[in-house]
Specification:
single chain; flat
Length: 33
């Protein structure tokens, strides 16, 4: 899971901020841990 999140964060961080990436991940994936 960490690897997937890291990859998505790295890709998303280029377009939007890492904070928004986490928000989208929490909304798209499961509830925040």
């Amino acid at each position: 899971v960490e690897r997937a999140v890291s990859i998505v964060s790295n890709m998303g961080a280029r377009v939007i901020g890492p904070d928004e990436v986490r928000k989208k991940l929490n909304l798209t994936k499961r509830a925040p841990l």
